[in-house]
Amino acid sequence: MSSPEITAVELSKAYRLLNHGPTVLVSAQYGQERNVMAAAWACALELTPAKVTVVLDKSTKTRQLVEQSGYFALQVPCYAQIDMVHQLGTISQFDHPSKLEECKTELFYQDDFPVPLVAGSLAWLVCKVIPEPHNQQAHDLFIGSVVGAWADSRVFRDGHWHFQEASKALRSLHYIAGGTFYLIGDEVKAK
Ligand SMILES: Cc1cc2nc3c(=O)[nH]c(=O)nc-3n(C[C@H](O)[C@H](O)[C@H](O)COP(=O)(O)O)c2cc1C
């Protein structure tokens, strides 16, 4: 996507895209099949090389595509996308083959990476699965090595988030339960 606000993020700073604990969208593709689900249980794991974790339940279609392709992307959605995020997290492509159309989820690709990304998000991390069959089976835990990262420069630039300068529509979402989220709040600094 040739959108001027989408700028590359150094992989050594990629963990900061998740450090504030946002709800994420997980996208994946295998062949012609593409899907996206919501995930609250995503986390940074290592600085260098950048790694992340995400919990993908065995009931999800997205997990199947991740296992088949060996890739996934995490993206940080915003308040403007709240209804889509909740829908992507409450219906399964197993039951709704046209889930992405129903949820009005627009996808794009960045460079030559084989994973579709969700347009309108704040940040994107393309990850290559580091196979850990025991963790995947026993804990539904997937580890990914971050191979590409980008963010919307209106809210993340020079290695830092700048939510305080952005509109409410561009605040990240933090899931509680039952369709209730918090928006990220004010920046405060420790001494
Ligand atoms: C806000 C939110 C967060 C969620 N977090 C997770 C998660 O961390 N891991 C998970 O396996 N499912 C999570 N879910 C549930 C999946 O998103 C849901 O099962 C989804 O329908 C799977 O879609 P799919 O089968 O099309 O891949 C979450 C749902 C919501 C609404």
Task: Jot down its keywords.
single chain, 191 residues, mainly beta, Pnp Oxidase, Chain A, 8-stranded antiparallel β-sheet, two-stranded antiparallel sheet, 14 strands, globular, binds flavin mononucleotide
Task: Provide the succession of SSEs.
Answer: EEEEEHEHHEEEHEEEEE
Straight-line distance between termini: 41 Å
The biggest sheet amounts to: 8 strands, antiparallel
What is the CATH class?
Answer: Mainly Beta
The CATH topology is Pnp Oxidase, Chain A
* Cofactors, ions, other ligands: flavin mononucleotide
Percent helix range? 10-25%
Number of helices: 4
Molecular shape:
globular
CATH homologous superfamily grouping: Electron Transport, Fmn-binding Protein, Chain A
**Low-confidence regions:** none
**Mean pLDDT, all residues:** 96
Organism: Acinetobacter dispersus
Domain Flavin reductase like: 16-158
Cofactor: FMN
Protein name: Flavin reductase like domain-containing protein
Secondary-structure blueprint:
Elements: E1 6-8, E2 24-30, E3 33-39, E4 42-46, E5 51-55, H1 61-69, E6 71-76, H2 82-88, H3 99-102, E7 107-108, E8 117-118, E9 123-129, H4 133-139, E10 141-152, E11 156-157, E12 160-161, E13 173-177, E14 180-183
